[in-house]
Amino acid sequence: MIPSPYPHLWQSDIAAVEEFLFHPVNPFAPAKQTLAFEAALAQYLDVREAVVVSSGTAALHCALAALGIGPGDEVLVPALSVVMSSVPLLYQQARPIFVDSAPDRVDFDYADLERKLTDKTRAILPVYLWGCAYDMPRLMQFAEQQHLVVIEDACQAHGSAWAGKYLGTWGDIGCFSMRDGKLMATGEGGFVLTNHRKLAERCRALRSHFVNGRDPVCSYQHLGYNYRLSEVQALIGHKQLKHLDAILAHRHAQAVYLRNGLAAVQGVEPYHFAQDERPNWFSPLFVMDEDLARKEVAKRLARQGVHNSVGTFGLRPAQEWPVFQSGKGSSQTAPHARSFLSRTLALTLLSHYGPEELDTIIITINAVMEELRDEENRGRA
Asked: Which residues is 152 bridged to in the sheet?
């Protein structure tokens, strides 16, 4: 049985949202919901500062701008990532340098990471795809030795941790998304975390046209953006944060159910997490053998309604997308990342999935595998 936390979440909190909607927001008063949500985020995630913004992309853009990363700067980013993780670098006219992944893990190939260093390298931007952690001590040691700032893309990693420390709190600044489909979702939205007060203050200024609330005469000294989160979204986010432990437990139960249901499938095994890693199970992750990878199982499953990162959304090494061509990114290949993605089955789950929906996924995967076996037998005949 997989009890969902969502019915009781909304039954207990919907009254507060309704009450808020019946009272107009005073745009000249302090943003009470925003301030309360930021304080709760900082307390839950054990950091000094949290700044809520309008999206995960806005979080990354504010982080880069706050750190002064701009034209001519190079930032080391993983090839094993989504486009949205690196596009904000283009906003700043900085250059993403794509680094290959470890052969069988969501992490950097550290030999390739070192090869990609130049005198223009300013930062490193790990992306915790599917809620998976990197080897955090190794990553932070590398960054410290090379005098690089660390900007964590934790947009899929709410609640994921390494050795008890949350992802998004290891580096100089961590960036999160709250778009629909994330474990904490407010329709759209995001936030940044940092232990550096000046960085937080700069992010707060950047998200609101660089207005100085304490001294309006000193406003607009730098370029800012319209990246505010609405008060009602902050209220919803705050309510969800109160239930995040239950949400994480629910997703873990979903992942365990799928792992148990697919245990007997030949050629497919669960992704092996590191001993110190505590994932949030954003996407239950399975790795296929080379034979299944050549048969494009992920695409077949997507056509059968089993949504997954590679088959449904066409995930591929980030630098292969057109936006990063013509000198905007590295043209080098990433053979480990491409091989890993070809063998990856990262299942996309929704919060309301219970045994019925999960059984449908298991049955469909088994049916596709049976179909492949029949095709193989016909080919031998």
From this structure: 174
pTM attached to this predicted model:
0.93
> Rounded to 10 degrees, what is the CA torsion of 323, 329, 335, 337?
-70
Half-sphere exposure of 287 (CA within 13 A, CB side): 12
Q: Do 123 and 42 share a domain, yes or no?
A: yes
Measured between alpha carbons, how far is 159 from 145 in angstroms, rounded to an integer? 28
Question: Exposed e or buried b for every residue in 191-228, given b needs 16+ CB within 10 A?
Answer: bbbbbbeebbebbbbbbbebeeeeeeeebeeeebbebb
* Count of Cβ atoms closer than 10 Å to residue 342 Cβ: 17
Residue-number span of the structural domain to which 16 is assigned: 6-243
Number of domains in the chain: 2
Torsional sign, CA 85, 90, 96, 100: positive
Q: In this structure, are residues 314 and 342 in contact, taking their beta carbons and an 8 Å threshold?
A: no
Q: What is the pLDDT of residues 333-352, one digit of tens each?
A: 899 999 999 999 999 999 88
Q: Which amino acid is residue 302, in one-letter code?
A: A
Neighbour-count burial of 14, counting CB atoms closer than 10 A to its CB (0-12 exposed, 13-18 middle, 19+ buried) = exposed
Please state, in angstroms and rounded to a whole number, the distance separating the CA atoms of residues 352 and 350: 6
Structure tokens that stand for 183 in this block: 């474990």
Alpha-helical (H) ranges within 262-332 are: 290-294, 297-303, 309-313
Does 175 lie in the same domain as 27? yes
Q: Where is the domain boundary, 202, 222, 243? A: 243
251 and 281 Cβ atoms separated by less than 8 Å: yes
The reply to whether 202 and 253 lie within a common domain is: no
CA end-to-end span of the chain: 44
Per-residue pLDDT reduced to its tens digit, 296-337 = 899 999 999 999 999 999 999 999 999 998 655 555 689 999
* Gap between the Cα atoms of 57 and 44, Å rounded: 22
